[in-house]
Fold:
Amino acid sequence: MLSPVRRRPPRTPEKAGGPRGRGAHLGGLALLTAVLLLTVVASLAIGAGDVPLGRVLPGVFSPDDASRPDLIVHELRLPRTVLGIAVGMALGLAGAVMQALTRNPLAEPGLLGVNGGAALAVVIVIGSTRVDDPLVYVWAAFLGAAGAAMLVYMIGARGRGGASPARLVLAGAAVEAVFTALTAGLMLLSPGSFGGFRFWQVGSLGGREMSVFLRILPFVLAGTILALLLARPLNALGMGDEAGKALGSRPGRTRALGALAVVVLCGSATAAAGPIVFLGLAVPFIVRTAVGPDQRLVLPYSLLLAPVLLLGADIFGRVIAPGELETGIVTAFLGAPLFAVMVRRGRTRDL
Amino acid sequence: MRVMRAGALSVRWEPRAAAVCGVLALVAASAAVLVVGSGEFPISPPDVVRVLVGQGDQATEFIVTTLRLPRAVTGLLAGLALGLSGAIFQSISRNPLGSPDLIGFTTGSASGALLQILVFGGGAVAITVSSVAGSVLTAAGVYLVAYRRGGGVHGVRLVLIGVAAAAMLQALNSYLITRAELREGYEAAFWLTGSLNGRDWDQAVPLGIALAVLVPAALLLARPLGMGELGDDAAQALGVPVQRTRALLTVAGVGLVAAATAAAGPVPFVALAAPQLARRMTRRAGAQLLPAALTGAALLATADLISLHLPVAMPVGVVTGVLGGAYLAWLLSTTGRKGMA
Structure:
């Protein structure tokens, strides 16, 4: 009943590009990069407070302190946009690696307890040290995310039958619930920390200063490089442990490094923007539908598509409601239906 | 199983199940008495009982009946409702994880109540109504999405879609809290945790009325189904309108969750754990509605007692969340695939 959803094994390298070949994929990546650039410009230009399109570039590179549009672009939208790129890349890539590692299309950082663990750690740190430093958030969120992810995997893999997609999601729900209860308890103990925490908890790109982006940047870069280097070993893992070993891969090392990448990426993204659900689920799903299961394509495409979608959700949130809708809300409301579609598409035997 | 006959009437009963129910009722009642006795001004259990049978002195009687009894009664009734609805949903989805708190019904109920508290600013009655509406709408949505022609509502699909709905509504709830004034938001967050603090008869009485209707209805409706003991085909062959009975049971179950949530907030995990514990205690296959309901009452009353005696005051939802989550993790790691589905 709960057997893992079987994915087709990765195609051989010659076929990886499909009939379109390598050039088509380079073209596709270039196109996606162009779309990302357009989204970035849109993110700088759109929002409350009118900014003429002509003031966007000057606002970024040589802001005039007396000009209101320049200040809006440089002080508010630029930090928000670069943070969106970093967080989007981190979450999209983390989702792709997580799904490849667990061979589970339903794996999602937000559903596997990672957010709950990060939130609990952040609230403990805010409550006990009263520091309001993003770097402390980052470390706390790392530890929380890592602990939660390991716990979920251990619980999901322990029972008879191993870690199936549904079991992992449910183990995630269990761990998330315990952590949410503890977080609520701690938060209620110190009403002082509640004021800041409630805004972190909703998941948003807005209202963050440039320093937040700069603090998480090294972690996102390191995680991204590690994840991209894992593309080939992850392909081997997709063939199953036996076949992979026979071909000379080391599944144990791949899993450990992959988990490290996921935790670093999720931890930094969640620390900076708060919990943002369903992005890591949706992006690899869309990418796999388009380019097939070869991780050498899935990972770079996810890396580029995720920030497009996250910034898109952020822009959408800015224009949909007068008071702005936080990014986390928009992704939850767009992502949950997609998750439902995926569950419905699954064969009854699997789901 | 034994059958008692008195003329034309006969009742079948099982000594073990009856004994379990008796013990559970005793545990629930004792926990409630201890809850009433706990607080700034401790009252010994005999004194509490004396007041309850109408023989206490005036000061103690005021503290007991006006201040503390509503809390204990709300806890017992909410636990009863949660345990019963958990048993109903787990039996309908044929899945121990198909409990209303995991599949978004409780979260939806909370969304309804939060909208009322923070946006429309209605009173206790309006909050109850919105909470019920939120729960019903969520249930309808989850069922519709999980329904597939030919296959009906499949257990695991229902649970996973419910988990997605819960995540979405959770985001909505967080959003509502950020839009509120700090103090209101804090109170709403407290309410969202699930709490019995400061409950008075305004909460206990409507809950009692709802239960007086829904509990007998659910017990009667569940009987012909044999609750998983026969299976659909056999029941159908015996002349039971399976689909209609199931639809009515779902309505009763949603009503029970909504009533409990309106009174005590979304207390997590009681609905999940109670039916499972009841099944293990009665050692019978299939859902045990009455034992599950009593287990729910005993669990919530005991959790409330624990929350009152923690070194720092915590809402009861924190206690049930931690204990229940740990229980769910244990359940997942010990059951095989068959047991899960």
Notes: Chain B has one domain: 13-34+43-333. Residues 13-34+43-333 of chain B form a domain with the ABC transporter involved in vitamin B12 uptake, BtuC fold (CATH 1.10.3470.10). The longest strand of chain B covers residues 2-6.
